[in-house]
Each structure stands twice: as C-alpha cells, then as structure tokens.
Specification:
The chain is of the alpha+beta class and 266 residues long. The protein has helices at residues 2-10, 229-239, 242-255, 257-262; strands at residues 14-16, 24-25, 49-51, 56-60, 63-67, 76-82, 86-88, 94-98, 122-127, 130-136, 142-146, 151-158, 164-166, 180-187, 191-199, 216-222, 224-225. The strands form four sheets. The chain has a seven-stranded antiparallel beta sheet, with no helix packed on it. The structure holds calcium ion.
C-alpha cells in the first residue's frame, strides 16, 4: 500500500487531514472509501485521508453534483492544508516570489485573496545550516533558491513582535498553533502549477489573533511538491533491499522521472 499511497499523494490525487483536521479541497473532490493513509509523512494527523478523483462540477442552480466517472475539469484546482509543509523534489531550481494579490474587482473582499497586515514581516527559509533571508512581506521580489536536496523546506516569518512562525505542524510555533496554509494549485487536477504559502502573523488563538492567514504570502514553483513522496522513495531506495527497493525505484520512475534519473535510474 505504501508505494501506491505515496504515488497518489505525490500526484496530488490524495490529500490528508492535518493535525487539526482542517484540510479542505477547494476544488471538487469526493471522499474515498479506500482508506488511503498518510503516505508522505508530511504532517502528523488523524491518519484519515481523502482521495480526489477526477470529477466534474455541474452547476445546477446552487447545487453541485459530483460524478466520479466524469472527465477532469479544465481548471486550476486548489487544495489547502492548514499546517502543511513544502518539499523540494531535488530536480529543479526553486523560485520564490513574494506576492500581493489585489482585492477582487469592485472592491468586494473575498476570504484570503489578498495580503493585509499592519506588520512588515521578514520571510526566511530555515534549514540545518541556518536561515536564509528571502525578503520582507512588503516587498515585491522573486528569488531563486537554486536546486535543493529532496526533503522538507521550512519557510518562516519573523514578526515585529519577535515571533517566529513556521510552516508545518503547530508544535513548531511558540503558541502551538498552525501559522501557515499551503495552497497547492493543480492543472487538470494532476500537474502542479504552483504552491503558495499564506501566513498568519498574530500570536495566539482566535480573539487574540484574527487567524485569517492573509498577512504574508509567497508563491513557490520549480522543484517543489506539497508532500515528501520523492524524498521518502529515495530514502527507501537507499535503505531497503530486494523487492521493496525495486518497487520504490519503479514508483519513483513513474512519479518523477527526473528525480529517478538524477538518482541514476532511467
Ligand atoms: Ca492575521
């Protein structure tokens, strides 16, 4: 099961609940009865998972009809993971852009569609080697991080109140709450077009903080994924033998041929 689940997760076909169970698929999605489990090790959680099947949204007045047999919809589908993480696939340069989406036309405010914060936050990439400054939330800047080894990339903000809030699980943050939403955009529900990270910069629960996650935002593209499938498979290939290793190689070739070729499997 592991390899299949990993593959599904890596193709964006599976999404799992985060520790607070608030993952939601923004595009049309149907819950799976297959009981697919967390195959990426991205975030700890309840273990419950949903598999997004190709489905068609048929507008019928206010009613949305989901059909499992229908063709994939021709749109960018967005999946949000509260407390999710971003991962390098190790295959391509990673480009980070500080974004400032503008309010919708007509001045109508939609939920989490633009950045608004009284703070100017510093944006960083954290790693075992230290921290790398990307820019200020108020800037419009695009930075290439180059190619980075497959594995999790922890992005963080430093606020004027001297808080450090990180992507990933709540346990990383001083208030033990999630401070970033990972939005994954898939074209045709399959091909990754980009990942965005939206931060909440106020400390504490609702009331103390507005918890609207629109204070600082970055867009990431290139060799990235919203799950650690490539890194997990590379680890399996490095540590396992026999059939398990062969299955991992086959899965990596199918999942990410470039990552497989980089590791010497063509
Ligand atoms: Ca906020």
């Amino acid at each position: 099961m592991f390899l299949l689940e990993t593959l599904l997760a890596a193709q964006g076909l599976a999404t799992k609940q985060n520790s607070s169970g608030r993952t939601r698929a923004v595009g049309p999605a149907a819950p799976s009865g297959a009981g697919a489990a967390n195959g990426s090790g991205a975030t700890s959680g309840s273990g419950a998972a949903q598999v997004q099947r190709p489905s068609q949204e048929q507008s019928n007045g206010s009613k949305t009809v989901l059909s499992e047999k229908a063709a994939p919809v021709l749109m960018d589908k967005c999946t949000e993971q509260v407390g999710g993480s971003v991962y390098s696939t190790g295959t391509d340069d990673i480009i980070v852009k500080i974004i400032h989406p503008v309010p919708a036309a007509g001045g109508i405010r939609r939920e989490r569609t633009y950045v608004e914060s009284g703070f100017r936050n510093g944006i960083y990439l954290l790693s075992a080697k230290g921290e790398r400054f990307i820019g200020l939330s108020s800037e419009t800047r695009e930075v290439s991080l180059g190619k980075l080894p497959a594995g999790e990339l922890i992005f963080a903000i430093k606020t004027p109140e001297r808080n450090l809030f990180q992507t990933g699980p709540a346990s990383r943050n001083p208030d033990h709450l999630e401070h970033a939403i990972i939005k994954t955009y898939l074209t045709l529900g399959i091909e990754l077009s980009r990942i965005e990270v939206w931060f909440e910069d106020l400390y504490g629960p609702k009331r103390a903080s507005d918890r609207d996650f629109n204070d600082t935002a970055i867009q990431i593209r290139g060799g990235v994924a919203n799950n650690g499938a490539v890194a997990d498979l590379l680890k399996t290939i490095a540590t396992e033998k026999g059939e398990t290793r062969q299955q991992a190689i086959a899965a990596l070739k199918e999942l990410n041929p470039k990552a497989a070729a980089n590791a010497g499997f063509k």
